[in-house]
Request: fold
Amino acid sequence: MIVYLITGFAFLAFFLIFFVILYFLSRRKDPVALRLKGLKGSEEEKEKIALSFKGTMDLLGLSSDQTKGTRMWLAQAGYRRPSSVSNYYGARLSGALFMGLLGILVGVFFHFEAPVIFLTAFAGILVGAFIPRIWVGHKIAQRRWEIRRSVPNMLDLMVVCVEAGLSLNAAMQKIAEETSETHRHLSEELNLVNQEILIGKTRAEAFRNLARRTGVEELRTLAVMLIQTDKLGTSIANSLRVLADSLRVRRRQMAEESAHKISVKLVFPLVLLILPELLVILLGPALITLFKTFSGMAK
Reply:
């Protein structure tokens, strides 16, 4: 039974790897795909691709709403390619097969019993399936932190550009160009906002999409402020300056909060790692002397 199980997992793993390699090679050499890439695709072809993708997701048991949510979740980590969703689920499937096979091989190598081998294989499948999810979650947290750190500086530059006479769209384009190396993630988001406005979306809708793509509370506040400024007709420069000051105060408060947490976090390494060594160094010689003294008195 174990031999058949190992053979099945090995066959599935090699078949999946072989299929992925052939898929990417066929995409690279397919003249139709190259032609579509050059022409950016027509509406009819985009519809066929969307129907094909929908059929693939249906075969995997994923609804369109779930696929849309996964696509938005991956976009928050910076993965915006059309194949990001399929690559994500393919990575989870490949990881599950690989780790399941690895669990079986470990169980056979250490001569575990059959129930234990099944448990190790099941644990390997779970770990392999959740590693891509954990990785994407880590990328989202890291990207949000970098964007949150860049927002006050971006608002200061935006105030300067607006007061110099530039429109809000021109100011965002200028900031995206100037911060492409220092604040790369925020620069990419501002470029996307400009592109959405150029293709006909309203400024309010573009900023709502910005807040939805990033999941950063500061950008959501910026979007609400700009939407209200457009509706009420107030000064954009004054509103941006007030928001920049409040976000800078909030960032300083978060830094102070993190600094105050350090003393609490240092308690555990002090108690578990440093104090035992200090006790051995300080009390060790005294204990040895006491032991020798009491040993001599006993004689």
